[in-house]
Design goal:
7-stranded mixed sheet, Rossmann fold, Hypothetical protein af1432, 25 helices, 10 strands, about 10% strand, 3 domains
Length: about 575
């Protein structure tokens, strides 16, 4: 394992050696010959001002002088960056990243460090943070870029199995604050040395935390709010609104702290994966489809008020967000290479089906007005979803049950394995690939066997205790009230259904995390579904069997093969 060290670059290298030459008028080695031409000490009092006004040849001379100077000097005295690096006992396997502001002084120092340290270890070319310049109006954007770049490096190097260290000694003070926070929130060591210290210190973890699940519960609203959607922004909790630089009707990026926390959340849902993309699937929709998604999400809470089987693990918005995450992990890399894999309208159909596919849990009677017991609801919830959309399309954001609403309802219906897809056309009347979308929904839905669906440990225990109390109440009713007919049948079904939930909670609580990593091999996409168990690898076999059941259902392999995509389960590391 190598170490990847991220170094913020300041200008102490210049201030320690150039200022004393200029201000003390020390002239040696002909270095300052002609250097002060055009320099007015009454106007240009800072080293940054001096560097900005001199010509390229003089800048080159400064760079060469500093490069030649660093080696012979004691590294502790040369600069803040060399001082801190001298305490890290650099090895040839170490990988250095120098991050500089977009200023002449910063670039000169970064280039000197690059030229010097590449003789001793692996050094990437200096990374210039474009909007970290002298313009105050660019500062927030510059800090966002800095945070993005740091997290990108963290994820890339951690994915290779390397240790990551952030050296926050150099650079502007605000850079150090946000760089350190980026590291701490992504489980990365941050180090610092003051010029009066004799050794490096590791900055301690901050004694506060941010509940990242709030991002998960509101991720779809965050995406819409960042497109300037007023309704979406108004739905966000105040603590999330405060993290977004909101502009109605315009792109609204995160503020710097929001950017760091969002990255931390994204890293949590895909620890070995890519940097989570700026553009999600929702961003690929046109404004009409974005508004339609917003419209049915506006009705989301009321649609679930009548959940008839609340004893189950989560099937509501958190589950749907998990499914959308799997869709983005899989499809965004594919769409970057092949934009025609799914059209914008097909992406809209998929997103709509993701958020509506389980809504049948809130239906109590079938189309023949028969009262449904819990097992009937669960067994037929996908068909109930279809009927609900058909009978009340406006409840789901559709003007009427037209071809679009019918296709989305059909995808929801066929997401259950029980339905043979021979009854499902390859494309609908509008040319939408509804078979492919249905297969993708089946796979992404099946992937969500994660612990998060059972809530936290305390919630999980409370939920199971509540289920047990409810079961005992129904058993008491059966014993003492002696119901008959449909009432007896309903109560017996309720008892049986509740008893089954223990096993569902147990299975899901044994899988810490699932994520998808697509890779193009030859002309085909192989998507690795990586399962991270809590402590027992045996659970992976059960997970694989479940996923294989979806993949081996009639016509599924055929659909995947026709679209040059396939899925396979892989074991991940333990994540307690």
């Amino acid at each position: 394992m190598s170490r990847a060290i991220i170094i913020l670059v300041g200008i102490s290298l210049l201030t320690k050696h150039i200022e004393k030459i200029i201000f003390n008028k020390n002239k040696f080695d002909d270095f300052t010959t002609g250097f002060l031409n055009g320099y007015n000490i009454a106007i240009h009092r800072k080293i940054e001002d001096i560097i900005e006004i001199i010509n390229p040849e003089k800048k080159r001379q400064i760079t060469e002088y500093l490069k030649d100077t660093v080696g012979p000097l004691n590294l502790i005295e040369a600069s803040a960056e060399t001082n801190s690096l001298s305490h890290l006992n650099l090895q040839k396997e170490d990988i250095l990243y120098f991050l500089s502001s977009n200023t002449q002084t910063g670039k000169i120092c970064a280039n000197v460090f690059y030229e010097y340290y590449r003789n001793f270890c692996k050094v990437n070319k200096p990374i210039i943070i474009y909007n970290l310049d002298k313009e105050i109006f660019n500062f927030n954007q510059g800090i966002r870029e800095l945070s993005d770049k740091i997290v990108e490096i963290i994820i890339s190097e951690k994915g290779k199995g390397n240790e990551v260290i952030i050296n926050a000694t150099g650079g502007y003070k605000p850079e150090g604050i946000y760089a350190t926070l980026s590291g701490i929130l992504n489980d990365v060591k941050a180090v610092y040395i003051h010029e009066g210290f004799n050794s490096l210190i590791e900055l301690p973890s901050i004694p506060i935390s941010f509940n990242l699940s709030i991002f998960h519960r509101n991720a779809i609203w965050i995406r819409l709010a960042q497109k300037g959607n007023v309704q979406a922004f108004s739905r966000l909790p105040t603590e999330l609104q405060n993290l977004i630089d909101f502009n109605p009707g315009q792109d609204s990026p995160f503020k710097p702290l929001g950017e760091i926390l969002w990255h931390s959340y994204c890293f949590a849902i895909s620890p070995q994966g890519r940097v989570y993309p700026k553009l999600g699937l929702i961003d690929r929709l046109n404004s009409v489809h974005q508004n339609r998604v917003s419209a049915f999400l506006e009705k989301w809470d009321s649609l679930w008020l009548g959940d008839q089987i609340p004893q189950m693990i989560d099937h509501e918005q958190s589950h749907c967000q998990n499914v959308l995450n799997f869709a983005e992990q899989t499809l965004l890399p594919i769409l970057e290479k092949d934009g025609k894999f799914l059209s914008k309208k097909e992406i809209y159909y998929l997103i709509a089906a993701i958020f509506l596919h389980d809504i049948g849990h809130s239906e109590a009677i079938d189309e023949n007005d028969k009262i449904l017991n819990p097992e009937d609801i669960r067994e037929n919830h996908s068909e109930l979803t279809y009927q609900m959309i058909k009978n009340n399309p406006k409840d789901f954001g559709f003007d009427k049950f037209n071809e679009e609403a019918k296709s989305i309802a059909t995808i929801c219906k066929y997401h259950q394995r029980k339905w043979d897809m021979s009854g499902l056309p390859e494309v609908d009347k509008n040319g939408i690939k509804i078979r492919l979308i249905t297969v993708l929904l089946r796979v992404f839905d099946a992937c969500d066997m994660q612990r998060s669906r059972t809530g936290g440990e305390d919630y999980r225990e409370m939920k199971l205790h509540a289920n047990e109390r409810e079961k005992k109440l129904y058993q008491k009713m059966l014993k003492e009230e002696s119901p008959a007919g449909i009432i007896k049948e309903y109560i017996e079904s309720k008892v049986k259904f509740i008893e089954k939930q223990k096993e569902h909670f147990k299975i899901h609580s044994e899988i810490s995390l699932v994520h998808v990593e697509p890779e193009k091999l030859d002309n085909k996409w192989i998507c690795k579904i990586i399962c991270h168990p809590v402590k027992d690898k045996k659970i992976i076999q059960g997970f694989k069997k479940y996923i294989d059941g979806e993949l081996n259902a009639p016509h599924v392999k055929e659909v995947l093969a026709n679209n040059l995509i396939d899925f396979e389960v892989k074991a991940g590391k333990f994540l307690p």
